[in-house]
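debug: dumping io for the single-chain case to check the tokenizer round-trip. Nothing else runs in this session.
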Amino acid sequence: MSLNRREMMRFGAAGAGTLLLSSAATSTSLPATLFAAPPLVPSLPAPLPVAPPTPAGIDPALFARAKAALDLHGASIRHRDVIGIVDFSVGSALPRFHLVDLISGQVESHAVAHGKGSDPVHSGYLDHFSNVHGSEATSNGTYITADTYQGKYGTSMKVHGLDWSNNNALDRAIVIHNAWYAEPEVIEQHGKLGRSQGCFAFSRASQWRVMNRLHDGRMIYADKLA
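debug: decoded output
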């Protein structure tokens, strides 16, 4: 069968249309994301370090008591980033006043003296606590730091007692101060520190570290486990 010129042109146009439809179908069948840029993932800030359950060098039971005190007296404690924990279970020759960073878990420890009334034979170990006026003893419990002032030992820092066991601290003039009997040389010579009248007495270097870290209403928890 022969086709005239008009029929050949009609069939040619139809074939071209079929070819275009086939090409279009092929192109639309490709996934739209094949050449798309990968989605941007927002960068997240690095997480803050979290303190371990019990920081190194501190008795877990004592740390648990300090945390309970922090929660109990939370409304009175202005800052909760760093606290002081004093372990009077150990002798005065050892660094038993712990500065604990509750964010990083880091601990910095210092030697601290206890009161004469708590160690009448000067064994170097705290025997008992007292909150009584004139006892010259150390009191256990929760403290918060207060103002600094110029006293017998230079710049010193007042503390307030928050528990029944130490609520006479301010009236008894229990403070943070430095003293000659709390310097490292005293431990080297006598194997223990001298005794205070119930105050937290440090070497000059340690006192400044403690006051700088615990100023402005931060907490100190002092106790003895055995």
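debug: round-trip ok. The chain has one domain: 60-223.
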